Amino acid sequence: MAVEVSKEKYRSQVREVVLGATKEEGGTRSHTVKVGGETALPFLHFEGEMPNRPVVAMEVWDIVPEEWPASLKSYFEDVYDDAGAWAKKCVEQYGADLIAIRFKSADPDIKDASAEDCIATLKKVLGSVGVPLIVYGCGKSDKDNSIIGPIAEAAEGENLLLGVAEQDNYKSVTSAAMAHKHSIIAQSPIDINIAKQLNILISEMSTPLLDRIIIDPTVAALGYGLEYSYSIMERARFGSLQGDRMLAMPTIANVGHEVWSKKEASISADDEPGWGDQAERSMAWEATTAMALIQGGMDILVMRNPRAVELIKKSIDDLMQDNS
Amino acid sequence: MNRKVVFLPEEVSLEVLPGTPLLRAAALAGIEVKSSCGGKGSCSRCLVKVEEGKAIVKSTGKLSGEEQEQGYVLSCQALVGDQDLRVNIPISSRLEEHRILFNSPDNVDGEEEAYGAYDGYPLCTRFQLSLEPPSIDDNTSDLTRLMMALRREMGKSSPETEIKINTAALRGLAKALRERNWNLSVVMTYFPGNVEVITAAAGQNEKPLYGLAIDIGTTTVAIYLVDLLNGKTVLHHGSFNRQSRYGDDIISRIIYASEDEKGLNELHDSVIGTINEIIGQILQQAGINEEEILQVVTAGNTTMTHLFLGVPPDFIRLEPYIPTFSSTPAVKAKDLGLRVHPEAWVHSFPQVASYLGGDIVSGILYADLAENDEIVLFVDIGTNGEIVLGNKDWMVGCACSAGPSFEGGGITFGMRAMSGAIERVVVDPVSLEVQVKTVNNVKPLGICGSGLIDCLSALKTAGIIDRSGKFQSDLKSARLRSGEEGLEYVLVWADDSGVEKDIFLTEGDLKNLIMAKGAVYAAIRTLLRTLELDESVISKVIIAGGFGNYLHIQDAIRIGLLPDLEYEKFEFIGNSSLKGAKLGLLSRKALNKARKIGNMITYIELSVGTIFMDEYVSALFLPHTDITLFPSVESVENRN
């Protein structure tokens, strides 16, 4: 007698968000990337639809990332002086689905670069690759608030994914996305209520933006509370599937940023012989963190190490095989 | 050696030991100074000005340099040193200058209706007796003669129990019987296990028989003088609970009672003192003497009841939160030192749990929840939000710590619903101009609970704050400005206010309010979820508490304080604790029912389990993170 697999039916789904815009849509991207749209838990193809595969964005900085360990830095030695070339390498050689530009140079304590400098870099990257772009500021909100408007304006129509709106600081980036037709990252501190509240606050400024929000639930690296991030994602996904439209947004995770700032990623084997080879270990740390996150339903992974990216993309291929 | 302290403007002087805080010295001099934080130097409400001499200042708290130069000190942080002092206590720092309002217009009809059900079972009544004088053939004792007459008089309602007489009445009996030719008026009290002759006086007595219903609140004490023979409230009075000097909230007082050697006695004495002072006013106004008050019933929260009876409240505060008693036997007034007839019995309403006390049981009794077929939600909003849900067959209750915001605590210009408190706020969404209405229509002094609820709703509707309670910093209005604690919104300009300062709300105030409303709503949701019930089962919502003259239901829903039900389902009953105490005072049946209610309510401890915490964090938004719970509130989802 055949075993009847019991199936869960959900009444709702995650919103589908389109990133980037082609020429016909008012942008210059060679193609767009769709994320979200799931009607079941991750990869349970027998229970529902997962119309879009999780995607991987690779980070491109506008300065030399001195804080990266040598084993990671070495991949991009030849392109640090040219963000366009760096982006092109990520896409063409390492298969990045998206490029995430980080305008580190705008940091008042680093170069205090102007909005115009950032726009020049952005234009270079837009010219060198056809994939949709994610834009992060320097991480200091006052400065980011002052450059996000001009950047959004300069790339009007491109449907960039603009980061980041937070509960205490969502207006500048929301206005920029609203006025110049971009999408927006809504970041909350591992707190499902704030995630939802922030979506409501953003949608109160602009209802159409509801379909252009990507939630950054804030993740932790493996060993740093990953399971907590996972349980928040799980709750959000259950909420989405059960009809909570204010929580039903696709998600993004800053995997590389979390992993590479931890000592496990950078300490050499000489210092910690028991931990094994640093290059291999750090790559695996990023890949394992990312792996857990896609199992939790993450839609967009922002990563750094090309080998980790390769491993994850292979895993996504496998997981997307029909199991119904 | 003692130093002399003179308090101004009264010129009251006293001598105290060096090292005595000015706050305590003022209390010894009979001047009640505000002390919300209980003398910890954090609330700045006990501001006084040292005009002559120098005090030892332990801490200056939040005082500005300018204030310090002018001689202002925090009276809890300033100690008498080696100099005599002259200290001015400004009106704004005094408790007694503000008399409380009786917070709802007295609904006498409603009270009599509520009383009707208990008619015929008095707790205390008077019999006019005419006894056969003894003779040589009929030589039973005076007492036996009295008892026989009483049993005859009481007829069917005569209880099986033995009738007692107290020593004082017994001592006067022989004389009383003979003074007016064996005519006697006897005051009796009945309650389970006790039928007693309280007084036996010579002759007929046609004067009213008085009793007191007392609501012992953490902040205020309110008393009804009731004519026990016709059930009418003769007059009422209220005042601040003098325990306030040991802190505004219950926890500070429990700590004081348990950690200070004389703490328990001081707290007990100060609540008895408060009550006696109010009784004094009542006696004077009614033109009666204290011996004429022969029955007392009190309702208070668990801690207040403990302190009233002088029972240590220490373990109420500590996990697993166990009170010393839930139901307590009555005690004699003379044991408590109340200014009524010394032999009068004092009953206290029973408690459900440490944080669900006799005040709530009393409210439930008055609201008649235990007779209702349909499910009723009872909400008492004060520093603690107490919620009871149920009908005649079952009841569950819980208490959440809402913080004192609705009573004006923790809000920069917060105050209780007294004369001058802003109780209604209207904000024009275009000009962002503000109109306020105050209690008694005088110049505004601050803002009370109902005004705060209005304000939160009006600010949101006008787009001045967003759903998380943050000011929209890009607004063009002179009223929105940057203050010491961040952004603030001016409700009343100094020229129009009664405190000669701008009256404003800060983001911190709004945050406290949102936490308070979130806690109450989360507690309601927790009860419903624990029973797996939906809000739609609630047939009526009864709201009690000291909100001022009214509570604007629509605004309370709009900010997410109360569940989104039809407005007709809400009923505001004001100080139900006092009204319930009056029922108990008039009827032993009501008092027994209160005892049953106390036993019937299942207490849900919110700190156990995760439902409350989940509900609480999602309620910290206007109106709620889950907007579907508030369908009537215009929401983005409806528009979407």
Task: Please characterize this protein's 3D structure.
The complex is a heterodimer of chains A (324) and B (640). By secondary structure, chain A is of the alpha/beta class. Chain A has helices at 70-73, 83-92, 115-128, 141-154, 171-180, 192-205, 226-241, 255-259, 263-266, 278-295, 306-319; strands at residues 16-19, 33-36, 55-61, 98-102, 133-136, 161-165, 183-187, 213-216, 252-253, 300-303. Chain A has one domain (16-318): Dihydropteroate synthase-like (TIM Barrel). Chain A is 38% helix and 14% strand. An 8-stranded parallel sheet of chain A has the order 8-7-6-5-4-3-10-9. A two-stranded antiparallel ribbon of chain A has the order 1-2. In chain A, α2 (83-92) packs parallel to α3. The longest helix of chain A has 18 residues, at 278-295. Chain B has 640 residues and is an alpha/beta fold. Chain B has 5 domains: 3-93, Ubiquitin-like (UB roll) (Roll); 124-202, Ubiquitin-like (UB roll), CATH 3.10.20.880; 210-348, Nucleotidyltransferase, domain 5; 367-404 and 514-639, Nucleotidyltransferase, domain 5 (2-Layer Sandwich); 414-504, no CATH class. In chain B, 28% of the residues lie in helices and 24% in strands. In chain B, β19 and β20 form a beta hairpin. Chain B is globular, with a radius of gyration of 27 Å. Mean pLDDT of chain B is 87; it is low at 97-109 and 636-640. The chains are: A alpha/beta (324), B alpha/beta (640).
Number of strands of chain B: 29
Q: Look at the structure and give the mean pLDDT of chain A.
A: 95
Give the helices and strands of chain A as they follow along the chain. Answer: EEEHHEHEHEHEHEHEHHHEH
Number of strands of chain A: 10
- CATH level-four homologous superfamily name of chain A: Dihydropteroate synthase-like
CATH architectural name of chain A: Alpha-Beta Barrel
Low-confidence stretches of chain B: 97-109, 636-640
CATH architectural grouping of the largest domain in chain B = 2-Layer Sandwich
What name is given to the CATH topology of the largest domain in chain B? Nucleotidyltransferase, domain 5
Shape of chain B: globular
Measured between the Cα atoms of the first and last residue of chain B, the distance is 76 Å
